[in-house]
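Chapter summary example.
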Amino acid sequence: MTYRLEDIGRTIEEALPITTFPAERGLRLEIAGVEASLELAIGQEFTVFADSWHEHFAIRDELMAFLHDLVCGVLQVVVTYQGSRAVAYQIVETGNGAVKIRSSGGALLWPWWRQRNEVVLSYKAAERGEREASQRVAAPGA
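The structure predicted for these 142 residues follows.
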């Protein structure tokens, strides 16, 4: 099935607290209350990506379920760095006090001699009241 960027963008915006904008490789996804944005490429599959990780989806429903869980805080992304280079990532589900790795990926070669650290990225959208408060503060002349 072929999807149009405009249709996918509209579907995402109607269902989730995400604003979409045209980008070089597809759509830029801005999540309410989250500084970092994501990008979505559409080809034979859907690919959501950031600077240090990416995730592939075969069908639209899988994409929408992933984005839903990401903005609701069910999923987090754990990125492993060697020095300043991202070398691995895990998509982690944190529900009911248990941690479940949904997927992972990484580089085949990395600077193993550099210090290793992990960064947890949360894309949880701001609660509605928090979004409204931040919009009131940011509004010019308010």
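To summarize the output: The first helix runs from residue 5 to 15.
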